[in-house]
Amino acid sequence: MMPFPFDISATEGRARTGVLKTARGDIRTPAFMPVGTAATVKAMTVDQVKATGADIILGNTYHLMLRPGPERMERLGGLHKFMGWDKPILTDSGGFQVMSLAGISKVKEEAVTFSSHIDGSKHVLTPERSIEIQADRIGADISMQLDQCVSWPAERDAAQKAMELSIRWGTRSKARFGERETQALFGIQQGSTFEDLRRQSSDQLQEIGFDGYAIGGLAVGEGHQAMCEVLDYAPDMLPADRPRYLMGVGKPIDLVEAVWRGVDMFDCVLPTRAGRHGQAWTWDGPLNLKNARFAEDQDPLDPAIDGPSSQYSKAYLHHLIRADEILGKVLLSWHNIAFYQALTAAMRAAISEGRFEAFRRDLHARHVSN
To answer: How far does Cα 175 stand from its chain's mean position?
Structure first.
């Protein structure tokens, strides 16, 4: 018996909408998870994040194991209590840092050895330790298996070795996690852009048996078209009755194209990172508020998005960003998270009403032309 029932209420083609029911609340899918790397969605309070409509956030195991540290976090009541978030939390496993911090990490069969990017201290992360930190210390509702992700472009041999290691680590992760009633564990499909490797990964993950399945190894530099080519087949290799999570993606057009191909869940740092650098996402594409053309633009940023940024003119937001005022970063981060939640809500409605293909074409036309 799966701990979290997943009810699919409507489909259009391969796109689907439904609800993943967790002990801490329902997750409406398609779902976008704001990234709370270090126990905070950057520049936002938890009440602000909730107000955007987010059902779940993501925490980063690597960063949290460095500070405040997993044992301290457990003593403080876990991540939910620590940051004041009472809805579901998904944690990544630390596997992405195997790739992104390749210069200060070493991968062996038993474990990954890290040098902290903060103070150079040494840390060892095994599949078992990753699950202990996520499920027992942090208290994540959804934990991820430890995996190895390869950068792009990837040689076939490297992609195969990483995929096979990820399967072995997945077996160890599942053994450590065991069976739980109020927490779930997701496996991660790997294989880079090689269809047969992703098929092998998917088949072996299902033999192990997970509560949900992620598509890893994308959004690592391959570009939108190559990503879509992988998503033409990768989601269908995973069980249709369990949630499918595309890790680290992405731009609005990436989300829409992935949903069209059967993906249910997403996370990405883009909305808040873009906001801190003066970029706002709108239904007509991104706007760079640093641009001088907004200096006297008295129109609101996007009146269709319910958030505080709608109270202010583009001219004022331009001023805040150019003056490097903290409020500018806060307002644009808030706006972007609100836009992403509005986007997923609109996709859910479009699938339910049988008009998702038209919605997809319209957004594609607006975002590609801008």
So the answer is: 25
Which residue out of 26, 147, 211, 267 is catalytically annotated?
267
Mean pLDDT over 43-66 rounds to: 96
Structure tokens at 122: 């040494």
Pairing of strands 89-92, 142-144: parallel
Residues with Cβ within 8 Å of 252's Cβ and at least 6 positions away in sequence, in order, are 281, 339, 340, 343, 363, 367
Q: Which of 183, 169, 5, 160 is nearest to 78 (CA)?
A: 183
Out of 92, 147, 211, 302, which one is annotated catalytic?
92
Per residue in 106-120, pLDDT (tens digit) is: 899 999 998 888 999
Amino acid at 239: P
Closest by CA position to 25, among listed 135, 180, 131, 182: 182
Give yes or no: 7 in active site: no
- Which pair of tokens denotes residue 54? 């987010």
Q: For 331-366, write each residue's pLDDT tens digit.
A: 999 999 999 999 999 999 999 999 999 999 999 999
pLDDT of residue 369: 61
Helix axes 314-322, 326-352, angle to 10 degrees: 130
Cα(126)–Cα(165) distance, rounded to whole angstroms? 12
Q: How far apart are the first and last CA of the chain?
A: 47
Burial annotation 325-334 (CB, 10 A radius, 16+ → b, else e): eeebbbbbbb
Q: What is the mean pLDDT of residues 122-127?
A: 94
Mean pLDDT of the chain: 95
User: Tell me, what amino acid is at 255?
Assistant: L
Q: Is residue 267 annotated as part of the catalytic site, yes or no? A: yes
CA angle at 201 for the pair 199 and 203, rounded to the nearest 5°: 70
What is the per-residue pLDDT for 310? 85
For 284, half-sphere exposure in the C-beta direction (CA atoms, 13 angstrom radius) is 7
The answer to whether the bond into 68 is cis (omega within 30° of 0) is: yes
Q: Are 141 and 89 in contact, with CB atoms under 8 Å apart?
A: yes
Kind of pairing between the strands at 265-268 and 279-282: unpaired
Pairing label, strands 142-144, 6-12: unpaired
d(C-alpha 369, C-alpha 366), whole Å? 6
Q: Which amino acid is at 30?
A: P
**Which whole-number Å values give the CA distances from 281 to 73, 252, 301, 321, 345, in the listed order?**
34, 8, 9, 15, 16
